[in-house]
From TrEMBL:
Taxonomic superkingdom: Bacteria
Domain Cupin type-2: 20-77
Family matches, as PANTHER family: H2HPP ISOMERASE
Signal peptide region: none
Protein name: Cupin domain-containing protein
Length: 93
């Protein structure tokens, strides 16, 4: 198990787009942040936890994570997530 590989694709002060490449078994640790996040599943399968609720997603699924919501995921099948953050996550630069 390892951390996903993060690649910043585009950013401005108001918006950031990031690709996360996961291998099966990789985890996105539970965390929260003040940014609103939109996640698009480009490929793979994932089990997400958001504010104590679990759900699974696969290719072409998308959802929004509100500001301050605790969330994380487990990669079930290798793939990529495309995340957008508003405002930009300066900690990713």
């Amino acid at each position: 198990m390892s951390d996903p590989v993060r690649t910043v694709l585009a950013h401005s002060p108001e918006l950031m787009v990031v690709r996360f490449a996961f291998k099966a078994g990789d985890r996105g640790a539970l965390h929260s942040h003040p940014h609103v996040q939109s996640t698009y599943v480009r490929s793979g399968r994932y089990r997400f936890t958001m504010d104590g609720r679990e759900f699974e997603v696969g290719p072409s699924d998308a959802f929004v994570i509100p500001s301050g919501a605790e969330h994380g995921c487990l990669c079930l099948e290798e793939g990529e997530l495309i995340d957008s953050f508003t405002p930009r996550r300066d900690d990713f630069l």
